Amino acid sequence: MSEASLPLYQKIYNDLVEKITNGDYQEGDRIPSEKELAEEYNVSRITSKKALEMMAGRKLITRAPGKGSFVRNGKSPEWEQKVENSDLSDPSQRKPILFGFLIPDFSESFGTTLLSGAEQEGAQKDCYLIVKKSYGRQDVEEKALNALLELGVAGIIIMPVHGELYSRKILELALNGFPIVSVDRCMNGIPISFVGTNNNAASEKATDFMLGLGHNHISILSPPYQNTSTVYDRVQGFIKSHAQHGIEIDDSIWRTDLTSTLPGKDSDKSRQEDISKIAELLRDNPDITCLYALEYNIALLAMRAAKSMGKRVPEDLSIVCFDSLDSHYQYECEGGYRFTFVRQKEAEMGATAVRLLLRQIQEKTEPEKIYLDADLIMGLSTKKRV
To answer: Mean pLDDT over residues 279-290, rounded?
Structure first.
């Protein structure tokens, strides 16, 4: 890892060890305090404290409350060997590793189980997660990244905010070799590790099922999917399935301008606007027999739109979606329906992200990309077309 990409506490630690090794600080000498180091390196006292705790944990200094920190046994061969062998990969010296986990938002339908999987895996590996939300805004994302680095995290797991361009801070960290793992959303062309669902294959599986039920007029419901890898891949899987079945696609019956599920757009007004868009779609296109919602919350809107049109689910209209409120029982809030849905392996995704990050930190591995399969769960929202 380059010097510029090191956590700030590690840089302070390295500098102090070098000064002790070079004889700038002798055995028994007092080294700068947390406050003095924080001012010298322009960091928080949390960061400088972590550097000193690391040195004390490796028996390089003695910390005396109210007096300061002092070099231990600076001239002995044992001490020199301790400095030479000082390495985070040595379990006897390793302290708990701090990770950042940055996500736009999370809910019961997606994100909570992902975070839980990462936390459980981290606990087994003596890692701690600091969770921050970007709320889908790149300016907030960049501030959160800087805050995590200031806290001295050794690596970051991130679900990046999508836009026309990636965050400059992510690009900077990636190019400097700082350990980062992107989850759910793949940042193509950027040298960072990724773990997420094989959305293309999962969507193809769901579309095969819908076509197998005889639904040849399926409408995709989604937020705008340009520059959004997950939604884009789901659309591509839908297209591939139609091509393999020899069925022509009519994208004029899609609604890919739904916005109420986007971060910062979640309001009663925007939800009602989306419901009206879906109802208008159904009214203008009576041949539609199935709605394919690429997000769970959009499926809920579709259910309400169908109800407003007097359409019964699944007798008059089938609905399939990605994710669900409860992956075990799939109960929904609208009339006790249970959606047919694509279940992503969220817990495994979170755990895999932690393992990828640890490999980068401890083994200096190259970025890896891992795609997880998803399951199609049968619910009560779909029916064979007669």
So the answer is: 97
pLDDT digits (tens, 9 = 90+) for 113-171: 999 999 999 988 888 999 999 988 889 999 999 999 988 898 999 999 876 567 788 88
Burial (CB count <10 Å: 0-12, 13-18, 19+), residue 359: middle
Question: CB–CB of 199/347 below 8 Å?
Answer: no
Domains delineated in the chain: 3-85 (1.10.10.10), 97-197+346-373 (3.40.50.2300), 199-344 (3.40.50.2300)
Kindly state the tokens that stand for 77: 């061969």
Give the CA distances from residue 3 to residues 6, 93, 267, 357, 361, in Å, rounded to whole numbers and listed in that order. Answer: 5, 21, 45, 18, 14
Question: Looking at the predicted structure, is the pLDDT value of residue 27 above 80?
Answer: yes
The CA distance from 209 to 223, in Å, is 23
Q: How far apart are CA 368 and CA 350, in angstroms?
A: 15
Q: Helix, strand or coil for residue 15?
A: helix
Structure token pair of residue 88: 């985070």
**In contact, 253 and 288? CB cutoff 8 Å:** yes
**What global pTM score does this model have?**
0.74
Q: Name the burial class of residue 366, with classes exposed (0-12), middle (13-18) and buried (19+) by CB atoms within 10 angstroms of its CB.
A: exposed
Asked if residue 101 has pLDDT above 60, the reply is yes
Burial of 212: CB neighbours in 10 Å, binned 0-12, 13-18, 19+:
exposed
264, 135 in Cβ contact below 8 A? yes
In our burial notation (b when 16+ CB lie closer than 10 A, e otherwise), range 166-197 reads: bbebbbebbeebbbbbbbbbbbeebebbbbbb
- Region 85-102: mean pLDDT is 63
